[in-house]
Amino acid sequence: QVQLVESGGGLVQAGGSLRLSCAASxxxxxxxxxxxxxxxxxxxxxxxxxxxWSGGRTYYEDFVKGRFTISRDNAKNTVYLQMNSLKPxxxxxxxxxxxxxxxxxxxxxxxxxxxxxxxxxxxx
Length: 124
Fold this sequence. Notes:
Elements lengths: L2 E5 L2 E4 L4 E8 L6 E8 L6 E6 L6 E3 L7 E6 L4 E6 L8 E9 L12 E2 L3 E6 L1
Parallel strand pairs: 2-11
Antiparallel strand pairs: 1-3, 3-8, 4-5, 4-9, 5-6, 7-8, 9-10, 9-11
């Protein structure tokens, strides 16, 4: 079992940056694809980006391409989400999630382990 803990959320003005971290414990993440999802108030949880276990493949939804970057440090058992040029519509609770294997999936049902989430608020 993998335990995931997100951190790094906060309040930022539009155009600003934040870096989220997803730290894993109890098991190494080196065999897991890690994804980031987000959920805004009144909306469904949506896929944002993911990194294969090797880090060799990444996938981004169009609404964050060119602004967000996912990276991972398997030695530190941590995955990062660098968010630049933030917009008010990026406001949401951000979750990291893990699925065993090297295939990136965008459906939340394909991920077995979830963190508790971290709030990101972007003011206009």
